[in-house]
């Protein structure tokens, strides 16, 4: 519905540990959000590996949309984490989708690199090497890959269940490793060489395209009105987060900080492939034909898993209190803490993060901190150091200094990391909005319905965010 607040839409925002359905009202005067449903997203270990409970997620999405219906949204948009997918045959899901943390991906890397050298693969898709990129996952499917007739990334699969439409939204498709860097289309030759049937890959769509009405049984289950449709948004959650980040200056960097830390800059073209590959930077597509040149770094996952481990031991596991204690540690204590490489593979999916951190330190002859606050400070120092390294690489590869950093997502509440990053990078760090992903989702939908007038740009959308969600600034002086 259009009114003084603009257009009202429903945003489904799924993260790797939780999800939510948000009602957003957006227009030139700003954007407001109301979370109408939150739910956990917990993977399930089956005999063959680690899977997402996608049916459970879909059920929660329907619950959220039923609550959103009271606000009369005109459309729905879905974003989620990247790379994971479901295989279908005649519309039927062939097993529960694996999570990207499942160990099977290592053999997929070997299989792909046996036929396409890493440097050629990068030249074709521009992606940072991550063992769990979709291309590496797909080649582990064996006969199932030949049995399927469609592969849909998670947000596209949920959209298919809502509308019956089968598409691949381009920002998320760019994380698969099968999208051409130069033309933004499916790389048919690469697919053939690695053994992925091109018939599995659906037509590509861009953020802002209206995909079609909800199916009758979905309208009946949710109470959404006839005429409510699905709108493609930046369905990779980082694409939506960057669209919803009020970048303050030309060349400003972003850090979308949640389970992962996505550190990058927005460009209108790919950067030189040689230096970019040497710096392990990725090229992902953004809203309005932009590129997100970034590196995927460890995020708050390591802290959240430490808290889980400490709770199981009956120890202090209140993060805000621990962060306060960590920030107040004497300089002599901080100076004596080991330098933790937060991107070490041993921290990707351990059963016990506290044990993994201790083993990593002992293996390098380092002392293991005794107090949780000291461990938290060590981790936060490691995170800030990792992000500052990426900022230096981005400046070198793009040839442009980074004047400021915008930290969004739940991690933007971590004032200690923001302070440490400002000190290490030597530039202001603007924290917030926390809900940048949902904001980007809402804004792209609202623009598709004319909320910002004809020809509204990304800058216009970000201006609306800045109006109603001013950031908190951390200065290099601390």
Computed over alpha carbons, the radius of gyration is 22 Å
Number of helices: 19
Proportion of helical residues: 25-40%
Structural class: alpha+beta
Based on the structure given, which CATH architecture of the largest domain is correct?
A: 2-Layer Sandwich
Poorly predicted runs are none
Q: How is the main sheet built?
A: 7 strands, mixed
Taken together, the total number of domains comes to 2
Average pLDDT figure: 95
Number of strands: 21
Find the CATH topology of the largest domain: Nucleotidyltransferase, domain 5
Describe this structure in words.
Helices cover 38% and strands 21% of the residues. The chain has 478 residues and is of the alpha+beta class. It has two domains: 2-231, ATPase, nucleotide binding domain (Nucleotidyltransferase, domain 5, 2-Layer Sandwich), CATH 3.30.420.40; 248-432, 2-Layer Sandwich (Nucleotidyltransferase, domain 5). Helix 10 crosses helix 18, helix 13 packs across helix 16 and helix 16 crosses helix 17 (415-425).
